Amino acid sequence: GGDGTLVTKPLTFAGTKLSLNIVSKGRTRVEVQEANGKPLPGYTLDDCTPITGDSIEQIVTWKPGAELGKLAAKPVRLRFALANADLFSMQFQSK
After folding, report:
1. How far is the C-alpha of 8 from the C-alpha of 91, rounded, in Å?
2. Which residues pair with 17 in a beta bridge?
3. How far is the C-alpha of 77 from the C-alpha of 88, rounded, in Å?
């Protein structure tokens, strides 16, 4: 239980969606950052639709206009703000 933060190392990905296998009893959110840790406009924690519940394929979404595919092949980091949650895996997927 409790809250926590997880930040990935810089990574590059292919795809248009971020899928999580997660159990979240609170409001978990994901932020996409530049490789140096600066949050990308449109992909901040405040822009993320909070995730709650138990899902093996929860698609992360941000405010309209934030298309994850625009960032493919660019180095980014992901920051997870976990709220009483267990994150089992993440996967980038194509349409």
Report:
1. 13
2. 93
3. 18
